[in-house]
């Protein structure tokens, strides 16, 4: 019997008809060596059937309490049927990249059946006309897996582990994870009496734990609070300007993506010597926003602020116990108003370092810790109040998440995965989420938005490429100058 953690439950309580809490992965595979005899749907179905034991996500569903009296439970689905979760799909002619993006967005935008395990996989056959300039290395006969999982069950890090457990490390079918020693997790349905007892116990215990957490945090947050109270320097405060991304979001989401060599991204760190790879990601996103908004004559004079999720797991945490969400966050000033790309990059690097060390990181971690001790009914009510208050627009303009992945090729039934992309939930007043996934020497930049927020998503994707190329050109110039000076 496993009860949901408060952070997982937030993705239930904050879900609306317009903004679902779905997380979607788009994996593109080149055809296997035996492509002529390859029955794509049946082969993938057999493979997934053989890996159902690698994660409880596959076969357990939610048990919710009336009026959200307490957090829900995971229970085994006694009537689990894999055919209810696998779907055969194909693109209409000509079967190109834009159509694949539209299909992924359509799947992402549909609600899940909350009476079943919260996942589904769409197997998209015969990708025969993918333009090399839009998505490289997709030969005719390739296929895609569009996997949708409710965010209540998974975050970025656990999602990568989930997909790795489904994958092989060679065309011969050698599992990427040790699937033979995985112990199955069974969640029996709790009795009504047990759920009521736990609800009463949690409501009594939660206020005490809440106060204990707050008391432990005072020494770390007090200096920052005092400084902010006495400071008159407005430049130290991240004031969120209203932008076109802070509007109501349409229920039908949109998706696009592009990819860059990971080695090139790492080389860009030479432009800001103290930068991390995450700073490079933010710099490219900021550059894209600068170019996009400038082209639309809509660039604010003050910078946009990004909400940046951070993996909160211990480095050596047991992967068998880390499904669900373990994240904190920080806010990041993107300095989108700065025209010079290097100055913008250096400003982002300095700001993120301070955020991690000081008040932004501490306050985000504190809110995460405190939310762990809210009773279920309180969390449900608080989530609704947050949605009604439009607080998202007061905290950030958009979100940017960088999720590291495996740097070796992964396979499924002999077919090599050549691209990985992701879509994530949006919220009203936060209509843009940029997700980067690193895999096998590349990093993809995935865009989740809606047409009323970004009506020209292809142009925004071009702006990402433009931002990358201008930093790459400056890096090459810096390297050439260094060579001449030797």
Q: Sheet bearing the most strands, described? A: 6 strands, mixed
Q: Specify the helix fraction band.
A: 25-40%
> At CATH's second level, what is the architecture of the largest domain?
2-Layer Sandwich
Please identify which CATH superfamily of the largest domain we are dealing with: Nonribosomal peptide synthetase, condensation domain
How many separate helices? 12
What is the tally of beta strands? 15
Extract low-pLDDT stretches: 208-236, 358-383
Strand order of the biggest β-sheet: 5-6-7-2-13-12
What does this structure look like?
The chain is an alpha+beta fold and 486 residues long. The chain has a 6-stranded mixed beta sheet, sandwiched between helices. It has 12 helices and 15 strands. The model is unreliable at 208-236 and 358-383 (pLDDT under 50). A hairpin with a 2-residue loop joins strand 12 and strand 13 (415-423). Helix 7 crosses helix 8 (341-357). The protein folds into 2 domains: 2-193, Chloramphenicol Acetyltransferase, CATH 3.30.559; 234-402 and 429-484, Nonribosomal peptide synthetase, condensation domain (Chloramphenicol Acetyltransferase).
Summarize this, please?
The protein is an alpha+beta fold. The protein has helices at residues 6-13, 40-50, 97-108, 156-166, 192-230, 262-267, 277-295, 341-357, 359-371, 376-389, 392-395, 457-484; strands spanning 2-3, 22-29, 60-63, 73-76, 86-90, 119-127, 142-150, 253-261, 305-311, 327-333, 398-403, 411-412, 415-423, 433-439, 442-450.
């Amino acid at each position: 019997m496993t009860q949901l953690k408060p952070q997982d439950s937030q993705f239930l309580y904050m879900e609306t008809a317009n903004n679902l809490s779905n997380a979607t992965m788009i994996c593109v595979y080149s055809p296997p060596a035996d492509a002529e005899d390859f029955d794509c749907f049946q082969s993938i179905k057999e493979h997934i059937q053989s890996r159902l034991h690698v994660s409880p996500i596959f076969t357990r569903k939610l048990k919710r309490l009336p009026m959200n009296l307490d957090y829900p439970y995971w229970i085994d689905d006694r009537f689990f049927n894999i055919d209810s979760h696998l779907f055969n799909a194909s693109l209409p002619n000509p079967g190109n990249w834009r159509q694949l993006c539209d299909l992924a967005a359509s799947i992402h935008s549909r609600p899940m059946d909350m009476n079943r395990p919260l996942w589904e996989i769409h197997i998209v056959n015969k990708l025969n006309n993918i333009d090399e300039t839009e998505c490289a290395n997709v030969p005719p006969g390739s296929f895609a897996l569009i996997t949708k999982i409710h965010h209540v069950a998974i975050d970025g890090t656990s999602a990568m582990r989930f997909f790795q457990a489904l994958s092989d490390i060679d065309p011969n079918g050698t599992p990427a994870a040790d699937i033979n020693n995985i112990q199955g997790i069974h969640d029996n349905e709790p009795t009504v009496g047990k759920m009521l007892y736990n609800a009463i116990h949690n409501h009594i215990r939660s206020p005490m734990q809440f106060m204990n957490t707050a008391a432990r945090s005072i020494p770390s947050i007090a200096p920052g609070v005092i400084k902010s109270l006495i400071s008159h320097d407005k430049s130290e405060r991240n004031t969120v300007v209203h932008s076109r991304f802070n509007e109501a979001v349409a229920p039908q989401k949109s998706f696009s993506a592009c990819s860059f060599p990971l080695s090139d991204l790492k080389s860009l760190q030479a432009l800001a010597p103290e930068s991390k790879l995450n700073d490079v990601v933010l710099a490219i996103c900021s550059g894209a926003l600068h170019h996009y908004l400038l082209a639309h004559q809509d660039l604010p004079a003050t910078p946009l602020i990004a909400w940046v999720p951070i993996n909160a797991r211990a480095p050596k945490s047991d992967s068998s116990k880390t499904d669900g969400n373990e994240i904190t966050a920080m806010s990041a000033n993107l300095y989108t108003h700065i025209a010079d790309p290097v100055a913008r990059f250096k400003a982002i690097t300095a700001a993120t370092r301070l955020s991690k060390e000081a008040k932004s990181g501490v306050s985000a971690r504190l809110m995460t810790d405190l939310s762990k001790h809210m009773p279920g009914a309180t969390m449900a009510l608080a989530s609704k109040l947050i949605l009604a208050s439009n607080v998202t627009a007061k905290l950030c303009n958009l979100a940017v998440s960088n999720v590291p992945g495996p740097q070796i090729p992964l396979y499924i039934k002999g077919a090599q995965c050549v691209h990985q992309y992701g879509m994530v939930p949006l919220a009203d007043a936060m209509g843009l989420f940029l997700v980067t996934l690193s895999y096998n020497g590349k990093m993809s930049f995935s865009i989740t938005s809606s047409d009323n927020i970004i009506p020209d998503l292809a142009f925004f994707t071009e702006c990402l490429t433009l931002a990358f190329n201008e930093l790459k050109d400056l890096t090459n110039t810096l390297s050439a100058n260094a060579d001449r000076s030797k």
